[in-house]
Amino acid sequence: MNAPQRRALVTGGSGGIGGALCRRLAADGHFVYIHAHRNTGTATALAAEIAAAGGAAAVIAFDITDAQAAQAALAPILEEAPIQILVNNAGVHDDAVLPGMTAQQWHRVIDVSVHGFFHVTQPLLLPMIRSRWGRIVNVASVTALIGNRGQVNYAAAKGALISATRALALEVATRGVTVNAVAPGVIATPMTEGLFDAAAIARLVPMNRAGAPQEVAAVVSFLASADAAYVTGQVISVSGGMA
Predict the structure, then answer these.
(1) What is the pLDDT of residues 86-101, one digit of tens each?
(2) 0.90 cut: is pTM over it?
(3) CA distances from 41 to 14, 59, 61, 63, 227 (A)
(4) Which residues are part of the catalytic machinery?
(5) CATH of domain 7-236
(6) With bands split at pLDDT 50, 70 and 90, how would you rate the model's confidence at 140?
(7) What does the alpha-carbon distance between residue 195 and residue 176 come to, in Å, rounded to a whole number?
(8) Domain residue extents for the chain
(9) Residue 65 in contact with residue 86, Cβ under 8 Å?
């Protein structure tokens, strides 16, 4: 028997990992809202690709760091039905060693991962809880688990996301809603292109290769499924053995 179609939202859905997440959830039979902020053209092309493959998707565009913008974009969708699968994937890098980091660099990274998580998750929670079924998956980073020079802001942001994952999982554990996180390592995407050469990957990654976005998406697919009903409050590293 096929799983019922549910409505899913992937923030940062126009990016490398985000696109793989959207494709996989659509292939799993869900209706996918592809969130974008500036890359709406890429998101629209992805929605068309998903439709051509027999799936269903739509684009939703707003700035997740803006609480009012998020509320305005999500309210009409929630009036129709709850979103039962949420993947908080949006994130940004703005790297610098802390002595040379600007306040703008610090706040920009925190705003997207931490404030963005709140602005999107909070309005979706009560409708999800009322439906007695929900899956929230937060995309953190192996950097939050082991640290990385030049990424104190990113490690702090993703570490906060992991802590929020564990606390929220406790709040909604009796409501049919699970909350988990994945922590990708070096994943081959346009964002990481040029950051890691073969020598760096061999030094950092026990498997001696970068991961594929589809490998992250496979784990998220499981966590978003009925098969993961007894898995909550967990952080799963998808890092080739880095952590």
Answers:
(1) 999 999 999 999 999 9
(2) yes
(3) 9, 10, 11, 15, 34
(4) 154
(5) 3.40.50.720
(6) very high
(7) 40
(8) 7-236
(9) no
